[in-house]
Design goal:
Elements lengths: L1 H115 L41 H7 L2 E3 L18 E6 L5 H9 L1 H7 L3 E9 L4 H8 L3 H4 L15 H14 L2 E7 L5 H15 L5 E6 L2 E3 L1 H8 L6 E7 L27 E9 L3 H8 L14 H12 L3 E4 L3 E3 L2 H8 L12 H11 L3 E3 L4 H11 L3
Parallel strand pairs: 2-3, 2-5, 3-4, 7-9, 10-11
Antiparallel strand pairs: 1-4, 5-8, 6-11, 7-8
Helix pairs in contact: 1-2, 1-8, 1-10, 3-4, 3-14, 8-10, 8-11, 10-11
Amino acid sequence: MVIISLSSSSSSNYAYSKLRRQSSEVLEVTTSWCGRLQRAWKTAALFLALATIFVFIFSLYSSPLLARHRQNAQFFRRKQQQQQQQQDDQLRLANLKSVLATDRMLRILASEITTTASGEDDDDHLPILHPEDFIHPNASFSEFNPRRPAFGPTMNTAKEIIKATEVVIDIKRPCKKATDNLGSDLLAVVFLFCVVGDFSRRQAIRETYGSALKASTQTELYFVLGQTSEEKDKRNDRCRNSRRRRSLLFSNQNNNLLIFFPRLEAQLRNESLHHNDILQFAFTDAYYNLTLKAVATVRWTALHCSQARFAFKLDSDAYVRLQPFLAELATFSSAALYGQIRVGSPVLRDPLVKWAIDPRYWPYPAYPPYHAGPYLIPVNLTAQLYATVAVEPTTDTLPALPIDDVYITGVLAAKANISRTNFPGLKLLWGEEKRLLLREHDGKVVGGGEEEEEKKVDLLRKCSVFFETLNDDDLRRLWAIFGDG
């Protein structure tokens, strides 16, 4: 019994001593960690105090430095803006001098034509040509410089161009939308050709892709119009086969034809006050006056948008996808015109055809290479193009064609030695391709087994500008598909 009690007593003492030893170890570890934490807090407090003192001292000494840095940044920003403004002013002054010289030459040319045709009817003073006077059918456009005197003063629209460049409704602060108020970020000014009565089309454009063009600081959107006249459509049909139409004597040359619609003109002025995107010139809006509209737009761009990089001419039945359009423009040069190139297009002579040209005004069998439909003009070339309109009347003449894209991007560009380059993103949208692209909006997605159609749709979705045969509903459907992307 004694032995058992001694053994139990020794085991309990051993357990007690082990417990005390473990407790002392835990206490030592806890004390050690508490000391570390205390030292860490003291270090953090010291560091925080030192940081506070450093920030306070730095703020005392750096405030003048920061203020000086801000002043220097503002100074360099103002200097950069002044340099940009000086460059724009120099280009604007050069364009102004060139435009005024061209206007003066046009007046000289118009006065010479008036003197030559004094007392005669406009259709009767055309040069009388003999068969040997015509250029051989195989002649090329390279023989164009200079035109032979036998063809006479073929620039018979000098008076019309002088009148057409007068602005009836202008843009307030044109091409000044950028944040620096200088327009230095302006990449493209889009000019949409339409007529006065196209109120619904202009509104459809403003509600769709036009809203994206207006919201972007890199683009501007302006609608270019002429003036209304009474029975315009009847006169176009009646004169289509007449000698007056074929001889390119434009419809606004007789003042008695300019009978305006006051109600439409009043609505147009209200529209301009509300949107500030209407640019109207003083000529009768008709299909055969598109050349006058194009020349007037080129002149206006040279005078008012010299700080922009490109001017883009479109018809009202087109659609622009903003982001692909801007991405494509960023890769373009400022030394060439861009569009869909046509080479060797034959000149139509049948008087029953809408685009027939009298051989006295264009004796060549084909047109020079030109951009059919929309075309993109670098703004730095607009003054040069406009100057080419009025050549020296005593030594050379330049034919004025009613087909505006042929005249601007073909005749004038060739005469001015300006190259023409393809615009890959332009797409003529009609027929089957139009149906394939628009049916996505109608809920008819291309299904399996139609791989060829899927490829066509993928190619169409890579285009940046669609044109031809687009109505108001088509514009809204395309906007629902693409948005501003």
